[in-house]
Write a structure and sequence with these properties.
It is built from three helices and four strands; from the N terminus they run H-H-H-E-E-E-E. By secondary structure, it is an alpha+beta fold. It has one domain: Nuclear Transport Factor 2, Chain: A, CATH 3.10.450.40. The protein has a four-stranded antiparallel beta sheet, with helices on one face. A hairpin with a 5-residue loop joins strand 3 and strand 4.
Length: 128
């Protein structure tokens, strides 16, 4: 990996570069925690369209589509992204599974969305 693609901290400490999927996951967490119209100089970057849905069912369906569209647009290192609703966890959490490839390796990433705070936690599950 070229030095200019490594993080500043890794270059400063001369540490080994992290796997690219970790950088992808970190970027996804930033992207998915950005709100449209207020979290970026690019007004359409982030999530938020789903909030206009008339009910919870439609909001969850729109959110799945919105996540997939955002990943396709803003995280090109993750190829062939597919977002699947896994279900709810208690009354406050919705879990989505994001599958895709980084290089030749397939990955599964869990997206845990707190419906009260709208915070998205990104967790790397496994490489396939």
């Amino acid at each position: 990996m070229a030095a200019h693609f490594r993080s500043f901290l890794a270059r400063l400490t001369r540490g080994a570069p992290r796997p690219e999927i970790e950088a992808v996951a970190r970027n996804l967490e930033h992207l998915l925690n950005t709100r449209k119209g207020c979290g970026s100089v690019v007004a359409e970057l982030g999530l938020g369209d789903y909030e206009a849905a008339p009910n919870t069912h439609h909001a969850v369906l729109l959110l799945r589509v919105e996540i997939e569209r955002l990943v396709r647009r803003a995280e090109p290192r993750l190829c062939e992204p597919r977002v699947t609703l896994l279900g709810g966890l208690g009354t406050r959490h919705i879990i989505f599974e994001l599958q895709g490839k980084v290089g030749a390796e397939s990955h599964v990433i869990l997206l845990d969305i707190d419906t009260t705070t709208r915070h998205v936690t990104v967790t790397l599950e496994r490489a396939q």
